[in-house]
Amino acid sequence: MRMGYEKFTDYELVLACVEGDKASFGELATRYKNLIYSVVLRMVSDKEEANDLAQEVFIKIYRNLEKYQPEYKFSTWTIRIATNHVIDYRRKKKADAVNIDDVAGGLYADGGASPEDAYIAEEQSRMLRDLVASLPDIYRVPIILYHEQGLSYQEISEITEEPLSKVKNRIFRGRRLLKESLMSMRRGENYELGV
Q1: Which residues neighbour 96 within 8 Å (Cβ) at sequence distance 6 or greater?
Q2: Which of 10, 11, 102, 155 could form a disulfide with 74, with the two C-beta atoms 3.0–4.6 Å apart?
Q3: What's the pTM?
Q4: How many whole angstroms separate alpha carbon 80 and alpha carbon 58?
Q5: Which residues contact 136 (CB under 8 A, 6 or more apart)?
Q6: How many CB atoms lie within 10 A of CB 76?
């Protein structure tokens, strides 16, 4: 039972939780569980692993509520915690697997085309996911946040705690690396992402 918390702002819920109303955190978790899970899943590509990591992220959020600054959107703050947690986890695990569905925002979407066209579109989408997965984190994270989560450059800047110019540059360079790799693949060359 949510006990009327639906009308509270995120900041009011944070204050209530910090002041001892632990049930108010349930409303925050309800509001942001899909967003956090989605961000984490795009970075690790395994549903079970993403579930575990998302739970760990919520524990971190809960433990750090008193550090939340209301001048930032709560969603931006939670995504920052989630991305940093996954990056730290990946560094420890030395894993390099990310699954992303059509980072190009529907670039290869099937518009009712023939089965052959659908197959080609799916192959192109798979190649793009593989290429995004092979990007270094400094390019992969902003690309996922921008293309998959639909965040603005400013929001990504706040999440990554990087200057806006650096965020724009990394998204630009990441796209360029993806484009170069796709072109190499089309020419039949073996591809590797250079930094």
Answers
A1: 90, 133, 134
A2: 10
A3: 0.58
A4: 12
A5: 193, 195
A6: 17
Half-sphere exposure of 19 (CA within 13 A, CB side): 7
Dump pLDDT digits (tens) for 86-116.
888 877 765 333 444 434 444 444 445 667 7
Q: How far apart are CA 41 and CA 136, in angstroms?
A: 17
Block residue for tokens 């796209």: 175
Q: How many CB atoms lie within 10 A of CB 121?
A: 17
**CB count, 10 Å around CB of 106?**
10
CB-CB contact of 177 with 135 (8 Å):
yes
Residue type, 175: R
Taken as a whole, the chain contains a residue count of 195
Sole residue written with tokens 């910090």 = 18
Long-range Cβ contact pairs of 31-35 (< 8 A, separation 24 or more): 32/74, 32/75, 32/78, 33/58, 35/75, 35/78, 35/79, 35/149
92/156 Cα distance (integer angstroms): 23
